[in-house]
Amino acid sequence: DGGITQSPKYLFRKEGQNVTLSCEQNLNHDAMYWYRQDPGQGLRLIYYSQIVNDFQKGDIAEGYSVSREKKESFPLTVTSAQKNPTAFYLCASSPSRGGGSYGYTFGSGTRLTVV
Amino acid sequence: EDKVVQSPLSLVVHEGDTVTLNCSYEVTNFRSLLWYKQEKKAPTFLFMLTSSGIEKKSGRLSSILDKKELSSILNITATQTGDSAIYLCAVATRGSGGGADGLTFGKGTHLIIQP
Description:
The complex is a heterodimer of chains A (115) and B (115). Chain A is mostly beta strands and 115 residues long. Chain A contains no helices and 11 strands. In chain A, the strands form 2 sheets. In chain A, strands 2, 4, 5, 6, 9, 10 and 11 form a 7-stranded mixed β-sheet that branches. Chain B is an all-beta fold. In chain B, 0% of the residues lie in helices and 61% in strands. In chain B, strands 2, 4, 5, 9, 10 and 11 form a 6-stranded mixed β-sheet that branches. Chain B has a 5-stranded antiparallel β-sheet with strand order 1-3-8-7-6, with no helix packed on it. Chain B is globular and about 45 Å long. The interface between A and B is medium-sized, with 24 and 27 residues.
């Protein structure tokens, strides 16, 4: 079945540590996105990528980095510069930027907690 | 800056009640409005609306867009406990170069259906 796989489901980070969240899709979608969700805040865009080897900052990119070396994969690194990383992270993809006809397909998310 | 506002932010009703969720937006170059349901993890697509006054229906759920009022409503009739979820509204915009800009999300309405 086609879809988006995020791993791990739960992740614990120590202060000062970098961690990488994985996102893989087999939908042959061109565009991929990372969102952060906090209680009462809705979804906020961190980074997006429209094609391989190209990505753009979203609204809250500080303290995060991404790469897009393959069409299927869009990993997100939460660096030590991100002061408040505890949140639920959602990866999404779409056939083209803007969602095509059916919006985005979302992964199941990774819950990151700083310990 | 594009803005999407949902109301109410939370709502508790009894099984069998009818609920109406609201979404208003202020964006440049509106393309479409989308509704998602988020239960525990991945948001799932409900509706995409592009034209005013045309109701989209799926079972007990329906939605309509009013481009003059820059708003949309999502109705759920004969609610069931399985309707308990966060309902997200998002607006897709058209980029200045003709391509799409992506989705701007509201904060969501947290709906709880009590038996």
